[in-house]
């Protein structure tokens, strides 16, 4: 009877475990445990970083694949993985493209180490370390009986490799346009250039661009006839390749324009052109380099209608042709980047260099006023001191003459 009870107990445990792993390639004998460090595999590829997580311990812990997300971005579907049930055990796959270095909150930290450079010689080499984590969401309650899962990962690449493989990255968008002759599809591209000639593509050095370097951008369209032009509604930047990043900085939007941004051409031809000075995002304050991605919301418009779609700055009302059919296409978002920028020196280093090698020190108006005020206070203090000493001596003079008079009693 006791043996029968033991057998029934074992069978019931096996049944419960198998029911928990139902539909997935999991073994209850090996995977009825909480996750461990060995459950994540990291592959640092030439174009993407691939992460594989053993899904069976995740199931055993009471979670599903939708509970796993990159860097706590549980509300973003792009930051979740997908199940691969064709392997044993079942895994959850995450893929991170090197063209979007900070997508879903992944961090890029640049450091310097000794190693072989591009020519095979030993020298100081800058290393870009891409790091992040995969976790489960915190419950909305005060306590929880489920363990919180956390998987950390990192990949290191020579910074020169990252820059060379991402400096010309550009997304393309296909726009479908209807006109009287039917429907045609045009492709939009956002490209970056070194100068106003718009001939040489932007070249980013291994150490990154210095701040305030002017970059020239162009939105180009293909498969268009002369009746259609390119119209940039607005362009903005983000620290990641995600156009929906919550942190963004607008370069131009309607009549509002960044002071360092110049729009050369918009709505007048089949190319929109502008330039801006590169900067760094403050969130990268602890890093030597910052990544900037450029996004433009663009549409196609009839050459006759484009001027009517542009904002009339200085007036409240904006002309619109939305009621006219065929006036413009739908919007498309195109992206280029990353533009990697660097800070040359810290303020402390700059001041030291100025003292050692710079020209003679020149005072500005604020410094001159401050020194003048200090000098005036010093003179007033000295005058006050002299006046006080004079008054003090004046009070002591009668006492001195009285003590020096002759006393007849001592004669």
TrEMBL record:
Sorted UniProt keywords: Cytoplasmic vesicle, Disulfide bond, Extracellular matrix, Membrane, Secreted, Signal, Transmembrane, Transmembrane helix
Bilayer topology term: Single-pass type I membrane protein
GO CC list: cell surface; cytoplasmic vesicle membrane; extracellular space
Residues in ZP domain copies: 43-320
Keyword Oxidoreductase attached: no
UniProt-listed InterPro entries: ZP-C, ZP-C_dom, ZP-N, ZP_dom
Pfam families from the UniProt entry: Zona_pellucida, ZP-N
Transmembrane regions listed in the UniProt entry: 369-392
Chief location: membrane
Localization, UniProt: Cytoplasmic vesicle membrane; Secreted, Extracellular space, Extracellular matrix
Cleaved signal peptide residues: 1-19
Functional note: Glycoprotein which is a component of the gelatinous extracellular matrix in the cupulae of the vestibular organ.
Protein name, per record: Zona pellucida-like domain-containing protein 1
Natural source organism: Danio rerio
Gene that specifies this protein: zpld1a
């Amino acid at each position: 009877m006791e043996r029968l009870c033991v057998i029934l107990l074992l069978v019931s445990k096996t049944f419960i475990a198998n029911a928990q792993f139902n539909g997935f390639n999991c073994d209850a004998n090996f995977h009825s445990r909480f996750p461990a460090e060995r459950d994540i595999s990291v592959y640092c590829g030439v174009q993407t970083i691939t992460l594989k997580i053993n899904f069976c311990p995740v199931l055993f812990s009471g979670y599903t694949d939708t509970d796993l997300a990159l860097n706590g971005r549980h509300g973003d579907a792009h930051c979740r993985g997908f199940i691969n049930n064709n392997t044993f055990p079942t895994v959850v796959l995450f893929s991170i493209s090197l063209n979007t270095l900070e997508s879903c909150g992944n961090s890029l930290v640049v450091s310097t180490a000794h190693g072989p450079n591009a020519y095979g010689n030993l020298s100081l080499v800058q290393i870009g370390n891409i790091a992040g984590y995969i976790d489960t969401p915190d419950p909305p309650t005060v306590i929880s009986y489920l363990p919180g899962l956390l998987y950390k990962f990192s990949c290191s690449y020579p910074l020169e490799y990252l820059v060379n493989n991402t400096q010309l990255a550009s997304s393309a968008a296909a726009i479908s346009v209807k006109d009287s002759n039917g429907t045609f599809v045009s492709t939009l591209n956002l490209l970056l250039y070194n100068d106003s000639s718009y001939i040489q593509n932007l070249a980013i050095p291994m150490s990154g661009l210095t701040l305030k370097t002017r970059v020239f951008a162009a939105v180009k369209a293909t498969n268009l006839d002369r009746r259609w032009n390119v119209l940039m509604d607005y362009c903005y930047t983000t620290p990641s390749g995600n156009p929906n990043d919550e942190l963004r900085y607008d370069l131009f939007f309607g009549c509002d324009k960044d002071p360092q941004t110049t729009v050369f051409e918009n709505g007048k031809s089949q190319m929109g052109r502008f330039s801006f000075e590169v900067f760094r995002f403050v969130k990268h304050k602890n890093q030597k380099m910052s990544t900037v991605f450029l996004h433009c919301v663009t549409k196609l418009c009839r050459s006759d209608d484009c001027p009517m779609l542009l904002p009339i700055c200085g007036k409240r009302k904006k002309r619109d042709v939305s009621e006219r059919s065929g006036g413009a296409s739908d919007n498309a978002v195109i992206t280029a980047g990353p533009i990697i920028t660097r800070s040359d020196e810290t303020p402390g280093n700059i001041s030291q260099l100025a003292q050692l090698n710079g020209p003679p020190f020149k005072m500005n108006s604020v410094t001159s006023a401050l020194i003048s005020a200090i000098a005036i206070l010093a003179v007033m203090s000295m005058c006050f001191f002299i006046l006080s000493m004079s008054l003090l001596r004046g009070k002591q003079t009668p006492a001195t003459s009285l003590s020096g008079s002759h006393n007849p009693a001592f004669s």
